User: Which sequence fits this backbone?
């Protein structure tokens, strides 16, 4: 995105915020999932907690709603910077495929310790 495009998005969002005209636009969105982490890093913003990994993940229907909303607001990328390690979740690839199926780009922050050669090869093709 160049500076002219960035200024256009900012201008549209300020107009929406000030007078309610139009709709906000998002260049990107963070979608946090309550995943557990395999490390307990001293400087981690999550407070070195272990998170629940399972039933508290958004349902597929809820993700459909979230992603449809983001598409309506011109979102281009999803960022996973998580509340835990994405690759500690057995459905990480399924989630990535789902994000990409909406045409979003994806940025993933990871500690890298759970990545397999197979996952790295997959990511090098799709993200």
Assistant:
């Amino acid at each position: 995105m160049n500076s002219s495009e960035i200024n256009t998005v900012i201008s549209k969002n300020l107009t929406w915020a000030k007078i309610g005209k139009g709709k906000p636009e998002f260049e990107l969105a963070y979608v946090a999932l309550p995943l557990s982490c395999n490390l307990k890093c001293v400087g981690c913003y999550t407070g070195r907690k272990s998170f629940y990994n399972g039933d508290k993940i958004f349902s597929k229907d809820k993700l459909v709603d979230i992603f449809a909303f983001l598409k309506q607001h011109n979102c281009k990328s999803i960022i996973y910077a998580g509340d835990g390690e994405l690759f500690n979740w057995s459905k990480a690839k399924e989630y990535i495929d789902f994000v990409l199926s909406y045409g979003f780009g994806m940025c993933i922050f990871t500690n890298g310790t759970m990545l397999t050669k197979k996952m790295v090869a997959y990511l090098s093709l799709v993200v």
